[in-house]
Every structure is written in C-alpha cells, then in structure tokens.
Amino acid sequence: MADLFLKQAKQYWKTRPGYPQQLFDFIASKTPCHDVVWDVGTGSGQAAVSLASIYKSVIGTDTSKNQIEFAPKLPNVRYECTSPNMSMSELEAKIGAESSVDLVTVAQALHWFDHDAFYNQVKWILKKPHGVFAAWCYTNLKIDDEFDRVFHKFYAESKPYWESQRGLVDDKYTTVKFPFDPLDGCDHTGPFEFETKQPMSLDAFFTYVRSWSAYQTAKDKGVELLSDGVIEEFRKAWKEDTNVEKSVTYPIYLRIGKAGDAVKQAI
Which of 15, 145, 223, 258 is deepest in the core (most CB within 10 A)? Predict the structure, then answer.
C-alpha cells in the first residue's frame, strides 16, 4: 500500500479531507474506556489528531515514512513506521501487549489490508469484551450538479488505473469483511453515514486528484489523467477563477463493532 502513495505524500497531506467531529463523538460514545487508540494506516495523521483530543494516548502507524513525516506532532500521539506485513512480535513491541488497546481505527485504508491477518491482530490487541474497532471510508466528493457530472465521467475513465480494492470504497464498505459484533444498542455494524465539508479551490482539486494512487499508476504508464482537455472541462464546470474556493462534501461510511469475549477467526 505504501508504494502507491510514496511519490505524492505532500499532495496527500495538503488536500485529503479531515473528518467531522460528529464521527469521533459517535465512536467515543461507543468506547467504554478512552485510554489507548491504535490508528492504523495513519498516513499524515488526519484521524490521529482528532482522536488525540478525546483519548489519552494515540499510536499512529503507517508503512510509509514519507506520509508520517507530514503528520502533526502532538504530545499524546506517537507515530511508528511498521513493516508491510507486521508480525505479532512487532505488533507487541510497537503497539502494546495483548488486550491493551481500547480502540483500533482505520481511516480510508482498510481496503488495502490483508483482512484475515489484520483482523486477527486487532482481536488480539483489543481489550475484551468491549474493545472497539472502527473503520471508515469516504467516497467521491460532491460540489454541484454540473461539476459532479464532469467528475463522475472523469472518475469512470480513471477506473482502469485503480487497484481492485478500490471497489470496496465504491461499495461504501458494505462488502468488506467485518468479523466483529454489533455494539451495545446497535443491531448491525454499519455502515453508519456521516459527511465532512471543506473549502477547496479548483487548483486544490487538481492537487487532490494528483494524490490518487490511480493518478500515479496512470502516470507511471505514460498516461496523464489530467490532460489539457480534461482540465478545460473542469474549468468550464467550475465557472469561477481557479483560486476561488467552493464547499466540497465528502460522504463518509463507518463500520464499527466490538471484539467480543473470544478471538474469532476473520470470516
């Protein structure tokens, strides 16, 4: 996964959305203890920063040193670069002992993981029975009807350059493996829907597209997704100067559950 974002870590840091406080308040309301969080695939710390305002200690891990370099440094957040295929011994050394973590989070990264191996680690490290696992993704941004039509066409044309795992995001994480129990008071594990908004200029939008793994994959194959013709289409749909900001909405889909009493194999 790290290799897909290696060349565009700065663009990722500059343009990827943050997440709404309502999302973190909801997760926190379902977590009995607010001591330790493991934020997996932390990237440049978008989720870790918000978690740090609620939980005493946050451990953010990523397989990309480049990504972590852009993560904000806070006194109660510790960042660790981990192996792509982390062993149980590395897990214990860098994150903690068995049943030592209150919450494990994954923001916009679960689709890249080896789910069976990862879930076994999550279930090992979560406190039993009420430790919580929460993973969420955001789908394609929305601005207005005209711009969205151009964007949806562009996104469809980019599909050959996405990894197959991207389909889990397109499905709003409804089809991702999720071997966790519903939380108390819930009869399912989601997805629960949220949204985040942020101002964005057209120039920032182009930078956001350049942060896509698909953009880099296409570029490595000699294909420029943001050709002059495509850029002109977006400019016409924008109808403003390229540095004028508009409100951009990202739909967010959360899967959340608890560890339960026993370690179950991922199914």
Answer: 258
Contact yes or no for 73/91 (Cβ under 8 A): no
For 92, list phi and psi in degrees, rounded to 5: -65, -40
Task: Give dist(CA 177, CA 128) in Å, integer.
Answer: 20
Closest alpha carbon to 213 in 227, 204, 202, 225: 225
Number of other residues whose CB lies within 10 A of the CB of residue 198 = 15
**Measured between alpha carbons, how far is 181 from 103 in angstroms, rounded to an integer?**
14
CA 253 to chain centre: 10
DSSP assignments along 190-211, one per residue:
-PEEEEEEEEE-HHHHHHHHHT
Mean residue pLDDT of the chain comes to 91
List C-alpha distances in Å: 12 to 15, 207, 236, 256: 6, 8, 25, 25
Strands of the chain, DSSP E? 36-40, 57-62, 77-81, 103-107, 132-138, 192-200, 246-258
Q: Which residues face 58 on adjacent strands?
A: 37, 77
pLDDT digits (tens, 9 = 90+) for 156-167: 999 999 999 999
